[in-house]
Amino acid sequence: METIRSLIPFLIPIVLLQLGLMVFALVDLIRRERTKGPKWVWALVIIFVNLIGSVVYLVVGREE
Prior knowledge:
By secondary structure, the chain is mainly alpha-helical. It has one domain. It is 81% helix and 0% strand. The chain contains three helices and no strands. Helix 1 packs parallel to helix 3.
């Protein structure tokens, strides 16, 4: 139990970074007219694949 409490200060920034990246990717998805693939699939990837899903969308899913 004590080790979990000692890890909390390190986990909070990681969780905040992940949530911020997810929000950024979802806002970008909503504002973008065209994506590589259906928007609803990208929304599911961003939400359910967590950190990796947001990064994959930002690198692969956006269509310029």
